[in-house]
Amino acid sequence: MTDTAVPGRLHAAFADAGVTGWLHAVDIDSGAQVGAGSDQPVCTASVHKLCVLVTLHELAAAGALELTERVECPPGGRTPGPTGLAAMLDPVGLSLRDAAFLMMSVSDNTAADLLLDRVGLDAVNATAARLGLTRTRAVHGFGAMLGTLREDAGPAGAQALTDPHVVSRLRALDPARTNRSTPRDMTRLLRALWRDEACPPEYGAAMRRIMGLQVWPHRLASGFPFDDVHVAGKTGTLPTLRNEVGVVEYPDGGRYAVAVFTRTAQTAATLPAADAVIGTAARIAVDALRSP
Question: What's the sign of the alpha-carbon dihedral 123, 129, 131, 133?
Answer without folding.
Answer: positive
